[in-house]
């Protein structure tokens, strides 16, 4: 059982909107879920007009979740906010993720999906030295998935949360590009 990825397409927006509307996803992602809002928020990346990658995560070929990936260098304000908490290398990348299918939750697939996304990142972004992921401290399931995927906590600090009901307290996780040994 493996995860593969493909670029999110506009034809995936109804599926994504349904995931974003699910209470467990909505709690942490805090997105509007109307078709217009999903098209507004995810359309530019799907059309390649935005420098981020929105990737549909497929579990054994079945749509299962979403991974967003971007280089901090493409988002200077985001980089500056995080750099107040931890050092952010110029070539650092970040990920955000969700598992949207309810029957796949609670099965330990989050870390598997994150590891697969990391492997793809190292292949597709050869200039990336590390992946840094800030996560709301209250989102224990998310930061535990990062730990199980091999990331380590490198900082704690206040950052703007995605959901305004959350506290500003965040943990920051990091994994460095694996070194190749002969």
Automatic annotation (TrEMBL):
GO terms for molecular function: N-acyltransferase activity. Keywords: Antibiotic resistance, Transferase. Residues 3-178 form the N-acetyltransferase domain. One of its GO terms (biological process) is response to antibiotic. PANTHER family: LYSINE N-ACYLTRANSFERASE C17G9.06C-RELATED. This is GNAT family N-acetyltransferase. It comes from Streptomyces hainanensis.
């Amino acid at each position: 059982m493996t995860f593969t990825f493909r670029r999110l397409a506009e034809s995936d927006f109804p599926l994504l909107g349904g995931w974003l509307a699910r209470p467990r996803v909505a709690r942490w992602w805090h997105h509007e879920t109307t078709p217009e809002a999903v098209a507004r928020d995810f359309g530019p990346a799907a059309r390649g007009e935005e420098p981020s990658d929105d990737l549909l995560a497929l579990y054994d070929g079945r749509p299962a979740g979403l991974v967003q990936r971007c280089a901090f260098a493409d988002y200077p304000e985001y980089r500056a906010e995080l750099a107040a908490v931890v050092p952010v290398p110029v070539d650092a990348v970040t990920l955000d993720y969700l598992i949207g299918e309810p029957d796949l939750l609670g099965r330990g697939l989050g870390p598997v999906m994150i590891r697969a996304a990391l492997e793809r990142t190292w292949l597709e972004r050869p200039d990336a030295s590390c992946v840094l992921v800030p996560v709301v401290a209250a989102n224990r399931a998310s930061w535990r998935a990062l730990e199980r995927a091999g990331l380590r906590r490198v900082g704690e600090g206040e950052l703007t949360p995605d959901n305004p009901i959350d506290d500003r307290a965040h943990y920051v996780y990091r994994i460095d590009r694996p070194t190749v040994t002969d």
